[in-house]
Design goal:
Chain A: This is Oligopeptide transport ATP-binding protein. The structure holds two protein chains of two kinds. By secondary structure, chain A is of the alpha/beta class. Chain A has helices at 48-56, 82-88, 110-121, 126-139, 145-148, 158-170, 188-205, 216-222, 240-245, 250-257, 295-299, 329-348; strands at 4-17, 20-33, 37-41, 63-72, 75-76, 93-96, 176-180, 208-213, 225-230, 233-239, 305-306, 312-313. The relative contact order of chain B is 0.15. By secondary structure, chain B is mostly helical. Chain B is globular and about 85 Å long. Classes of the chains: A alpha/beta, B mainly alpha.
C-alpha cells in the first residue's frame, strides 16, 4: 500500500458573518497517498476551495476550524503556528491558483517571482535561485527562457502565465501540489496543454496532486481517485472508474448526467440551487433537489455506505431496506459498462 | 525614447508659453497700479514713472517686450525692491523654500507610507481606526496651528529646536514637520486605500502560498503596487511645497519665496508675479514629465514606448 501523506479527518469549518455562522465544511474526511492525484469535484460554493485553503493554513480571517484534524505525515497542520506554516507553504505543500491573469505580481520580473520560494526555503542566493528558476522555466515549456525570465507578467499570454504559476508552485519540488481549478480561466485548447504539462511534471518530480474542479470532463484524464463534494460535505468518493461508471449518489448522477457525451442530444441540468449553509438541512443536503429523495432523506443524515474497498457513498439508497430505483438512462449505460469492465478484470485476474 | 522625450519637451515649452501669455494678460486685468502712494502723486509724476517702467506702452507691446526678455533669461526688475532683478530675488530666496519643501515632502511621504501600510495591514482593527483618525486630523488642522503648537511645546518648553529663524539643519526641523503633516496625511490615506485593494488580490494570496513572511509580502509585493496612485499626487504636491509657503515661512521667519509671491500680487509687482509664476509652472511641467517616467519604473505595464528598461 502506498504511503499516506495527508489524512484529513472530520474537518469542520465555520465562517463568521453578520448573518450568523456559515457552516462551510461539515465533517469532511479524505486522504492522499504518495504520488496519486485526488480530484475534489463539486459546484461553486460546495466547499472545495475552503478545504484546500485550510490545508495551506490560508483561510480567511473570519473562518474558524471548529473540529477535526489535518495530518501531514505525523504533524497536525491545524495545530501549527503561522510561522511554522510559512515553512511548509511553498516548500512541502504548494498551490496553483485559478486565474493566471491575476495571480502574478504585475510589477515583479517573473524570474524573481519564481526565485522567491527558493530564496526563502532553500536559503539560496539570488543568482543561484535565478539559475534554478531558469531550469524550471524550461521544464514548464517556456520558449526562450533566458530572455523571458527578465520579463513581466503582462508580456505573457494566459496559458504561458499559468505555466509560470505552475513553475512557482513546483520550484521547491513540493510533496503535495494543490491545483485550485487551474484550467477554468483558460481557453479550451490551452486547458489540455496545461493538464498534459501537470501530468508530465507529476511523474518527473513525484508530487501528489489535489485537483479541485467543477469540470468532470477534466477529472477523467487527470485523477486516480475522486471525491464529490456537496454543500460542505463529501457525498461520494472512489476511484475514478468507480465514480464515473458506478456512481451511487443521486448528486453524482446529476453531475454526470449534466456532462455532454457524444450521444447526448439534450443537456440535462440539476434543478434547484444548493442549500443555505447558514442553516444546513437536517438530512441529506441534496434531498430537496433530488428526484430520488425518500422520507428519511429529509429527516436523517445518511452515513457512508461501503460500495467497495475504495468506494463509499453517503446516500440512503444504499441502505438494505431502501427501495430499488432506476438511475437516469445515462447512468444505467455507464453502470453497464462498469459491469463489463469488472467482468473483464476478473477474467484477467 | 528620444523621440518621445523631444516631443514631451516641445509640449512643455508650449505649455510654458501659454501659461506666460495667460498670466500676463490676466495680471494686467488686475485693478490698481504698482505705486503704493498713488493718491499723493501728481499725474505728471505717474506719467514719468509709467515711462520709466515701460507701463505707458500698449499692453501687447509690453507683453512682447517681456517675452523677448524672458527668452534671454531676463525676468525684469522688481518694482518693490528698488532695482533688484527678479532673477536675483528668486534665486536668493528659492533655496530655503525648496529645501524646506523637499524635506517636508520626504518626511511626509515616508512616514505616510509607513502609517498607511500599517493601517492597511491591520484593517478594521483599532490600529486602522487610529491611523485614519490621525490622518484626518493631520489633513484638517491648518499647518499654522500646528506650527505654533510646535513652537510653543517643542521649542519653547522643551527647547529641543530653535523657535524660528534660518541657520542650520536644526532650524528646519519644526517647519519641516509643520509643512509635512499635510502630505503625510494625504499619503497615508492613499497608501491605505491602495494597499487594502492590493492585499486582497490574487498575487498576494500566491505570495502567501509561497510561504513568504507578512513583512516580505508587504515589502516586496504590496508596497510597490500600492505606490502607483500615490505617484500622481506626489509630483505636483512637491512643487507646490518647494515654491514656498507664505504662512509657514512667516511663522518661522524663513527667508523663503512664499511671502514674496503673495506680496508681489498685492502690490502689483508685475515682473515678480510673472517670475514666480513661471518658476512654478516650469517646476510643474518638469515634475509631470518625471512622474510619467517614474510610473514606468514602478509599473512595467505603463513603461514608456513599451520596450523594457
Amino acid at each position: 500500500m502506498a504511503e499516506r501523506i495527508l489524512d484529513v479527518k472530520n474537518l469542520e469549518i465555520n465562517f463568521h458573518t453578520y448573518a450568523g455562522d456559515v457552516k462551510a465544511i461539515r465533517d469532511v474526511s479524505f486522504h492522499l497517498d504518495k504520488g496519486e492525484t485526488l480530484a475534489i469535484v463539486g459546484e461553486s460554493g460546495s466547499g472545495k476551495s475552503v478545504t484546500t485553503k485550510s490545508l495551506m493554513g490560508l483561510l480567511a480571517n473570519n473562518a474558524e476550524v471548529v473540529g477535526g484534524s489535518i495530518m501531514y505525515h505525523d504533524q497536525d497542520i491545524l495545530k501549527k503556528s503561522e510561522k511554522e506554516m510559512q515553512n511548509i507553504r511553498g516548500k512541502d505543500i504548494a498551490m496553483i491558483f485559478q486565474d493566471p491573469m491575476t495571480s502574478l505580481d504585475p510589477t515583479m520580473k517573473i524570474g524573481q517571482q519564481i526565485a522567491e520560494p527558493l530564496m526563502k526555503h532553500k536559503k539560496m542566493e539570488k543568482k543561484k535561485a535565478w539559475a534554478q528558476a531558469l531550469d524550471i522555466l524550461k521544464l514548464v515549456g517556456i520558449v526562450d527562457p533566458e530572455k523571458r525570465i527578465n520579463e513581466y507578467p503582462h508580456q505573457f499570454s494566459g496559458g504561458m502565465r499559468q505555466r509560470i504559476v505552475i513553475a512557482i508552485a513546483l520550484v521547491c519540488y513540493p510533496e503535495i501540489l494543490i491545483a485550485d481549478e487551474p484550467t477554468t480561466a483558460l481557453d479550451v485548447t490551452i486547458q489540455a496543454q496545461i493538464l498534459d504539462l501537470m501530468k508530465e511534471l507529476q511523474s518527473k518530480i513525484e508530487t501528489s496532486i489535489i485537483f479541485i474542479t467543477h469540470d468532470l470532463g477534466v477529472v477523467a484524464g487527470m485523477a486516480d481517485r475522486v471525491a464529490v463534494m456537496y454543500a460542505g460535505k463529501i457525498v461520494e468518493y472512489g476511484t475514478v472508474d468507480e465514480i464515473f461508471y458506478n456512481p451511487q449518489h443521486p448528486y453524482t448522477w446529476g453531475l454526470l448526467n449534466s456532462m455532454p457525451t457524444l450521444s447526448s442530444t439534450l443537456l440535462e441540468a440539476i434543478p434547484g440551487t444548493p442549500p443555505d449553509l447558514l442553516d444546513p438541512p437536517k438530512g441529506d443536503a441534496f434531498a430537496a433537489r433530488s428526484a430520488y429523495a425518500m422520507k428519511i432523506d429529509v429527516e436523517k443524515e445518511p452515513p457512508f455506505f461501503k460500495v467497495s474497498d475504495t468506494h463509499y457513498a453517503a446516500t440512503w439508497l444504499l441502505h438494505p431496506d431502501a427501495p430499488k430505483v432506476t438511475p437516469p438512462t445515462e447512468i444505467v449505460r455507464r453502470q453497464k459498462l462498469f459491469a463489463k469492465m469488472s467482468a473483464n478484470k476478473s477474467v484477467k485476474a | 525614447m528620444r523621440k518621445y522625450l523631444l516631443k514631451r519637451v516641445f509640449y512643455m515649452l508650449l505649455t510654458l508659453f501659454l501659461v506666460a501669455t495667460i498670466t500676463f494678460f490676466l495680471m494686467k486685468l488686475m485693478p490698481g497700479t504698482p505705486y503704493s502712494n498713488q493718491e499723493k502723486m501728481t499725474p505728471q509724476q505717474i506719467k514719468i514713472m509709467n515711462e520709466q517702467y515701460g507701463l505707458n506702452k500698449p499692453v501687447w507691446l509690453q507683453y512682447l517686450i517681456y517675452l523677448g526678455g524672458m527668452l534671454h533669461g531676463d525676468l525684469g526688475t522688481s518694482f518693490q525692491y528698488s532695482n533688484q532683478p527678479v532673477s536675483y530675488l528668486i534665486s536668493s530666496r528659492i533655496g530655503a523654500s525648496a529645501q524646506l519643501g523637499l524635506q517636508a515632502m520626504i518626511f511626509g511621504v515616508l512616514v505616510g507610507i509607513i502609517i498607511g501600510s500599517f493601517a492597511a495591514i491591520n484593517r478594521n482593527t483599532w490600529i486602522d481606526t487610529l491611523c485614519t483618525v490621525l490622518s484626518i486630523i493631520g489633513k484638517s488642522v491648518p499647518n499654522f496651528v500646528l506650527a505654533v503648537l510646535l513652537q510653543f511645546y517643542i521649542a519653547l518648553k522643551l527647547g529641543w529646536f530653535p523657535i524660528a529663524d534660518w541657520g542650520g539643519f536644526s532650524y528646519t526641523v519644526l517647519p519641516t514637520i509643520a509643512l509635512g503633516v499635510g502630505p503625510l496625511a494625504e499619503t497615508a490615506r492613499f497608501i491605505r486605500t491602495g494597499m487594502v485593494d492590493v492585499l486582497s488580490s490574487d498575487y498576494i494570496e500566491l505570495a502567501r502560498a509561497k510561504g513568504l513572511t507578512k513583512f516580505g509580502i508587504v515589502y516586496h509585493h504590496a508596497l510597490r503596487n500600492s505606490l502607483i496612485p500615490l505617484v500622481t499626487l506626489i509630483g505636483p504636491y512637491t512643487v507646490a511645497l518647494m515654491t514656498g509657503s507664505m504662512v509657514i515661512e512667516n511663522i518661522f521667519s524663513i527667508p523663503g519665496i512664499g511671502e514674496q509671491f503673495v506680496k508681489s500680487i498685492t502690490t502689483n509687482d508685475y515682473p515678480t508675479i510673472m517670475g514666480v509664476t513661471m518658476l512654478f509652472s516650469a517646476g510643474l511641467v518638469v515634475v509631470i514629465l518625471l512622474t510619467d517616467i517614474v510610473y514606468g519604473i514602478i509599473d512595467p505595464r505603463i513603461r514608456l514606448s513599451g520596450n523594457g528598461d
